[in-house]
Amino acid sequence: MVIKVENLVKRYGDLIALDHFNVEVQEGEILGLLGPNGSGKTTAINCILSLLKYDKGSIEIFGRPMSPSAYDIKRNIGIIMQNVAVFEELTVYENIDYFCGLYVTDKSHRKMLVDEAIDFVGLNDFRKFYPKKLSGGLLRRLNIACGIAHKPKLIILDEPTVAVDPQSRNNILEGILKLNKDGSTVVYTSHYMEEVEHICSRIVIMDKGKTIASGTNDELKSMIKSGEKITIEIFNFNAKILSDLKNMKNIVSCEFADNHLIVKSMRGENNLMVLLEYLKSNNIAFGKIYSEPPTLNDVFLEITGKELRD
Amino acid sequence: MQVFKVFFRIIKKNLGELSVYMIIFLVLAVLLSSINTGSQYNEFAQTKSKIAFINNDKTSALTDGLRDYLNENAIIADIKNDERTLQDALFYRDIEYIVKVPSGFSDKFYNGEKAEIEITKVPDSISGVYMDNMVEKYLNTARIYINNMKNISGEKLTQYIQKDLSKTANVNLSAADAVQTKKYLYYYNYAAYSLSAILILGVCIVMFVFNKLDIKRRNLCSPLKNSSINMQLILGNLTLSLGAWLIIVITSIIIYRKDMFTISGGLFILNLLVFTIAMLSISFLISNIVKSRPATSAAANVVALGSSFIGGVFVPQYLLGAKVLTIASFTPTYWYVKSNNIISSLAVYNAQTLKPVFTNMLIVFAFAVAVLAITLVVMKQRKTVS
């Protein structure tokens, strides 16, 4: 086991930021910490990294207790902070060299690692650029390069794609998958469920400092009642359709807006076919039809009663 | 030494802003020190006043002797013995002094009667006083011989007087290096301003970067010990301070050459070193208080300029009011400049004369220690809050 957090409690006065939070990270996995803003993800990461003192609980990394002076443990951790932490006064190369130098003292080895990191994040054309000259996306890539240049066994990324353009976001996500493929264990926090769904092998959903659900993507979705969401374009809508659908078996909710009927069904039944048969038998003309499987947002919504992005 | 290296990369990136203070200082210091050469002299050359000597008495050894004596120490102008001509010559400063020997003077003088020489001179002139002294000295000497050697011949009398008055004493001007000291006094006084500005700006710029929360946390996540990071930062600050001090000292050696290799030169250098330590301490405190980059420049200008103005860097301390000096005494700049002024005026170096200099240096050093203690309290307070 790479990380083991047990009953972690962190309070800021009356506010409980972490409420008996538990998490385990296995070697070689990408664990996603998913939760809305203020759910305690960054607090948990800061406690794990010993940047914050906590009130109760225990944290072990690589099987040893984590503390501010656990330098041997820190040597094998790569951290990519939520805010870009680079020196404005240093070039791209100098920044990566500085942060890599905190872990690797051998100059020639470090040079090789820095070059590899620059290659990895695709900043070869910007080696001599100062951070001010970089776009938001490139800056995030630099931040990642600074965190992973020393080839750590454990990489912790705290919302690394905030305010990043789609191209850089894809580059970052693909990079994380590659790092994991090369042997690094990854902890990835985000409030973007699509990202977490895309890259994480296991997901922990957090709310109000607690773990509310954990498992693989499929495991989480199988925990809830909701099934697919069906959207049908209807041209001659009347209120009877809504009341008929609401009375149908397996339909959780339905609503009509902007010529679109949105129907949420229960998990595991063949709802699309039932719906299409209803429309056909009642001679209701329809256009495009979309069927979407449940998302992590649905999981969060069903467990907490609120949207993930609230 | 990653932190140490980055320290100087940050300094290098801001070298333009920092060197402005050094360039301004060097230009100002060189210009002003060459203008302000001081008012002391290390050479003496006798000047002779132009006088008129009118003898209305009979020719005697006494009056001839007086004329000869005055002729040795002044220039006797050839002017017509006419009251109006003499007055005009005095008015137009063709002459500065008129010695008029009245009729019967010699006889009266030999007989011990009251005999006075008529003197007319330019009012309140230095040459007038100088000539008064000479006439008085000659007549007093003559009087002593006449009173004590009855029937002394005129020839003998003038011989004795001449011998006595020709005696001189050699004088060595022990404070001869005072003129040069004055020159580097200005240099070292102005150094206080530039050094303050450079240190506050330099230390604040770097510490501001390393104190940024994101950078600080990122460093804390690394296997580099916090104590090692702090040590490297302290080493960087010390190197920066000593570097600035060294540049000022080396420049002073280039400008004033061997004069800097004197006791006073050494004292100036030592005084600047103590001041550098105090300013480093103050800079460190400011770097822990200032919260933005523009505020750093503002703090550098306000503190450096403010303390320099009231401390006597730009305006001599003797021209500043008592209240201003009282306020200034709460800054190390005041004590630094005070020490410089004392060192500059010293001609003799011993325990007694050097005591006030070292006392002032100790006060400046005490500032460094006190401010450092306050800084540590501020840092601890911040740590507790965060």
Describe what you observe in this structure:
The complex is a heterodimer of chains A (310) and B (386). Chain A is α/β, with parallel strands linked by helices and 310 residues long. Chain A has eleven helices and 14 strands. The longest helix of chain A has 16 residues. The radius of gyration of chain A is 23 Å and the shape is elongated. In chain A, 41% of the residues are buried. Chain B is mainly α and 386 residues long. Chain B folds into two domains: 246 residues, no CATH class; 116 residues, abc type-2 transporter like domain (abc type-2 transporter like fold, 3-Layer(aba) Sandwich), CATH 3.40.1710. In chain B, helix 10 packs antiparallel against helix 11 and helix 14 packs antiparallel against helix 15. The model of chain B has no long low-confidence stretch (mean pLDDT 86). At the A-B interface, helix 2 and helix 3 of A face helix 1 and helix 9 of B.
Q: Which descriptor suits the 3D outline of chain A?
A: elongated
Helix content of chain B: 55-70%
Mean pLDDT across every amino acid position of chain A: 88
What would you call the quaternary organization?
heterodimer
* Percentage of residues in helical conformation of chain A: 25-40%
What ranges of chain B have pLDDT less than 50 throughout 5 or more consecutive residues?
none
Structural class of chain A: alpha/beta
- Biggest sheet descriptor of chain B: 4 strands, mixed
Can you tell me the residue ranges of chain A where pLDDT is under 50 for at least 5 consecutive residues? none
Write out key terms for the chains shown.
A: six-stranded mixed sheet, 29% strand, B: 386 residues, abc type-2 transporter like fold, 2 domains, four-stranded mixed sheet, 15 helices, 4 strands
